[in-house]
Specification:
The complex is a heterodimer of chains A (about 475) and B (about 375).
Chain A: H1 2-5, H2 8-17, H3 20-38, H4 52-61, E1 90-93, E2 96-100, H5 113-126, E3 139-140, H6 141-154, E4 158-162, H7 165-176, E5 182-186, H8 191-200, E6 203-207, H9 212-228, H10 230-233, E7 238-243, H11 255-265, E8 268-272, H12 287-291, E9 300-304, E10 314-318, H13 320-329, H14 331-334, H15 341-356, H16 359-374, E11 381-384, E12 391-396, H17 403-419, E13 422-423, E14 425-426, E15 441-445, H18 452-470
Parallel strand pairs in A: 2-13, 5-6, 5-7, 7-8, 8-9
Antiparallel strand pairs in A: 1-2, 4-10, 9-10, 11-12, 12-15, 14-15
Helix pairs in contact in A: 5-15, 6-15, 7-8, 9-11, 16-18, 17-18
Chain B: H1 2-26, H2 54-59, E1 70-71, E2 78-85, E3 94-104, H3 120-132, H4 147-160, E4 164-168, H5 171-182, E5 188-192, H6 197-206, E6 209-213, H7 218-231, E7 243-248, H8 260-270, E8 273-277, H9 292-295, E9 305-309, E10 319-323, H10 325-334, H11 336-340, H12 346-360
Parallel strand pairs in B: 5-6, 5-7, 7-8, 8-9
Antiparallel strand pairs in B: 2-3, 4-10, 9-10
Helix pairs in contact in B: 3-12, 4-12, 5-6, 7-8
The chains are: A alpha/beta (about 475), B alpha/beta (about 375).
């Protein structure tokens, strides 16, 4: 009965029946609550006990470090070799004429007349620069043609071009892999891949170089983690990033086993083919042709055009489903000017030459095998790399204690060779920035243009140099 | 105010239609035209979240033909564009083969008109191309340092009025690979609100703490500087190792010019370092084209790191960093680009050399003065 008769009139009547002090107390309480709600809140951090004078003193006293620490004058990476003239088969380094065993000009297309005349024609038609990114009138018909030709050559649906080789893989990885995703990457991955992974903010899991059992162990661990939290597992993407031919070690990755692991654990594969494009495979299509794998099994292939194609820039190819995404979210594609048309025309002509002469790949492989055999047995230096890899490393058999001394010793070997007419270089790394720093080494690069006599001369010269310097 | 309301209403209507279309596509009433995952990989974790591509599918597709328009001539004052039509509402494009000639070009960044197919620049580039070839096939620290690169760097240093300079193959990469070399953990980066993606990426990759100040607002910058020096690093209260201020000369999306005299005054007062990105302002501002520093009549030595690109005013491609000799020596040794990225292509280098000489008036003509 009480609830039926309860109405506003009765409420007000009872209010005024209450003693006065009660009403006043309630009123004050309500006003206090309103004041607390609207007053400024205290933030604990802003309570600084410093007066203005103390703050000014702190500002006066603070001394920053110098912007850059001084670099010692004899730092090995500071003094560059100056190459006068084109870096082709015969190269003039620091005034001396040598045979070039250091530039990644695998198919000898740097000095090719047809490539140069195609670039000249493009220069006459388009000038040098494109003056704009791809979205704002920087797309030329040569870019579209090059993308079509690359897609047709690699037998994929679509390809996308970047104007800088380093930026290709470093923009491709963060476009797909975001915070919270998991990437399994080989320890010997090159620096561009490491930067791409750092920019993506994903969880990185390193597995030992070319060790499939280690990778499988990591994948199994991930699987048990997934079973604990299936909801999260359903939205976490997984990737494996490997290189076709590793720049740091000269090995190839075991792709057939990787494909099996891909379908067993449902992981996507990104393949970086900078060194193997134009080198491996019967027609130069890379490691997928070398192993005879269907190219659709690889989700994304990325390569740079600066090695075999003797141009500048890079490309990614794959299915349209994957590549089209990069046109809006690849940072190096959207926010940067497009590739100069003369370099794109040079790349198209280089592709033409690759398609017309498929026997150069066999010639290159034969030369690689020859020098690999000739370099075995040098006292003090051991050859690292596959027998058909055109970029080998020579490591010291015994290190002399510190990396600095090793580098100095190798520099003496390189100088000896350069003085006698073979241009070599040490492999350069940023020592503090690499995740797994490779040991110091001499890089030996084999190109199609080197004759057998020159290969033998290089091998014997290296033997001599090792003898005189290391013993 | 009315504009904002109408914009939101427009977005709302498009979103509703988007949901309707997605619903119809899912129930196969409408044909799904965008690319899909492989049959064999249908049970993998989806590569793109469905909602992520919602914008792409429904809103961007409607207006997609405004971007990525292909042209087929030099991007000069007048340009030829390839005609592109779409018969299925922008899902696919076909080229009719016709070329529309003589379109007035207000879209390319060709500020000084150096993108030409005839003239001194093009002839010099052609000569260098026939002599050196198109590519380099090696990094700067290994075998890719040509005499042309050394010539270019000395010329750029002279042009800017700094002690020395270093050039790189891509403007975006210049920022994203050199900021991590200059600052690291324990340093502070103060970056403008509207900085370019390359500066933001470089700052993130470096691992330093980033704080953002309001666009061109000197009070906001001063407050941040004061707080930073007085309070130190966020939790440990250790003093900061260095403070780097990132600004641009001209902000491309806003069109505003940085307040350089005030920034330099603040930088000197609080002992921090200034990184100036002159991608758009080099060659375009200042009585003789030396950039925003000359526009304000200041001393180039006050700016610690002067960065710029060759893509806009010089009609080529690439970027540079100029500054004191110690800075450039350090970058030659420790920059990511010098150790791992291919050096610039020789004809592009020649184009820059010729255009810089033209602007400086050293090529014997007076074209430079007319800019």
């Amino acid at each position: 009965t009480a609830s039926k008769e309860f109405s506003l009139d009765y409420f007000l009547y009872f209010c005024f029946q209450a003693p006065a002090y009660h009403l006043i107390l309630e009123g004050i309480l309500i006003l206090w609550i309103i004041r607390l709600l609207f007053s400024k809140t205290y933030k604990l951090q802003e309570r600084s006990d410093l007066t203005l004078k103390e703050k000014e003193e702190l500002i006066e006293e603070w001394q920053p470090e110098p912007l850059v620490p001084p670099v010692p004058k004899d730092h090995p990476a500071l003094n560059y070799n100056i190459v006068s003239g084109p870096p082709t088969h015969i190269i003039t380094v620091n005034g001396k004429e040598c045979i070039n065993f250091a530039s990644f000009n695998f198919l000898g297309l740097l000095n090719n007349e047809k490539v140069k005349s195609a670039a000249q024609a493009s220069l006459k038609k388009y000038g040098v620069g494109t003056c704009g990114p791809r979205g704002f009138y920087g797309t030329f018909d040569v870019h579209l043609e090059l993308e079509e030709r690359l897609a047709k050559f690699m037998r994929t649906e679509e390809a996308i071009i970047y104007s800088y080789g380093f930026a290709t893989i470093a923009s491709a990885i963060p476009a797909y892999s975001k915070r919270g995703d998991i990437v399994f990457v080989d320890e010997a991955a090159c620096f561009a891949i490491q930067k791409g992974l750092q920019a993506s903010r994903s969880n990185i899991k390193l597995f030992k170089h070319n060790d499939m059992t280690d990778l499988e162990r990591l994948l199994k661990e991930q699987e048990t983690e997934d079973q604990k939290n299936p909801r999260k597992a359903r939205v976490t993407r997984r990737f494996i990033v490997v290189e076709g031919l590793y720049m740091n070690t000269g090995d190839i990755c075991p792709l057939p086993e990787l494909i099996k692991l891909k379908y067993k654990y449902k992981v996507r594969i990104f393949l970086e083919e900078s060194l193997s494009f134009g080198v491996l495979g019967e027609h130069g299509r890379g490691i997928t042709e070398h192993f005879g794998i269907n190219i659709d099994d690889i989700d994304l292939i990325s390569a740079n055009m600066e090695n075999s194609l003797a141009s500048i820039g890079g490309f990614c190819c794959g299915r349209s489903f994957i590549i089209d995404h990069q046109r809006l979210s690849g940072q190096g594609y959207c926010f940067s000017a497009s590739l100069p048309p003369l370099l794109a025309a040079a790349a198209i002509e280089a592709l033409n030459i690759m398609e017309d002469n498929p026997d150069i790949f066999q010639t290159l492989r034969a030369k690689c095998e020859r020098i690999h055999k000739a370099l075995q047995g040098i006292s003090g230096l051991k050859v690292v790399g596959e027998s058909f890899s055109p970029a080998l490393h020579l490591h010291l058999e015994e290190s002399c204690g510190s990396r600095e001394n090793d580098v100095k010793l190798l520099k003496r070997v390189v100088d000896y060779c350069m003085n006698s007419g073979i241009a070599l270089t040490q492999a350069r790394y940023l020592e503090k920035e690499e995740k797994c720093l490779p040991p110091p080494s001499i890089r030996v690069v084999i190109t199609v243009e080197q004759t057998e006599k020159e290969l033998d001369k290089a091998a014997s010269l290296l033997k001599e140099a090792a003898q005189s310097v290391l013993n | 105010m009315l504009v904002a309301v109408l914009t939101y209403v427009g977005y709302g209507v498009l979103t509703l239609f988007g949901y309707l279309r997605d619903f119809m596509r899912q129930w196969k009433i409408e044909k799904c035209q965008n690319a899909t995952e492989r049959e064999e990989q249908k049970d993998f974790v989806p590569l793109y979240q469905d909602f992520e591509n919602f914008y792409n599918r429904n809103l961007y597709m409607r207006i997609r033909d405004s971007w990525n328009r292909p042209i087929c001539s030099v991007p000069g004052a007048k340009v030829d564009m390839m005609e592109r039509v779409s018969h299925d509402y922008n899902w696919t494009f076909t080229y009719t083969g016709r070329v529309i000639k003589g379109i007035i070009n207000m879209g390319s960044y060709n500020y000084l008109g150096f993108a030409q197919k005839t003239g001194a620049c093009q002839e010099a580039a052609a000569k260098v191309l026939s002599q050196y070839g198109a590519g380099v096939c090696s990094t700067r620290q290994e075998m890719g340092n040509l005499d042309k690169h050394e010539e270019l760097e000395k010329l750029v240093a002279r042009f800017l009025g700094v002690e020395s300079a270093m050039a790189y193959g891509m403007g975006f990469a210049t920022n994203s690979m050199n900021i991590p070399a200059l600052v690291g953990k324990g340093c502070l980066i103060l970056s403008d609100e509207l900085n370019h993606a390359s500066l933001v990426l470089g700052a993130r990759l470096s691992g330093a703490t980033i704080r953002i100040f309001k666009h061109n607002n000197m009070q906001s910058l001063e407050k941040l500087l004061k707080d930073a020096i007085v309070h130190g690093q966020p939790r440990t209260r250790r003093p900061w190792k260095k403070i780097l201020i990132l600004v641009e000369g001209i902000y491309s999306m806003e069109g505003s010019i940085v307040r350089l005299p005030e920034v330099i005054a603040l930088k000197k007062k609080y002992k921090s370092y200034l990184y100036l990105d002159e991608a758009h302002s080099i060659g375009a501002l200042g009585p003789s084209g030396r950039g925003v520093v000359e526009y304000f009549g200041l001393n180039p030595e006050d700016v610690d790191v002067m960065m710029g690109t060759f893509t806009k005013s010089f009609g080529a491609a690439g970027g540079y960093i100029g500054g004191k000799k110690e800075l450039i020596d350090y970058l030659r040794t420790y920059s990511h680009s010098a150790a791992y990225a291919t050096s610039m292509s020789p004809p592009v280098v020649e184009q820059i050399i010729t255009s810089v000489k033209c602007i400086m008036g050293e090529d014997g003509t007076t074209i430079g003065e007319s800019f």
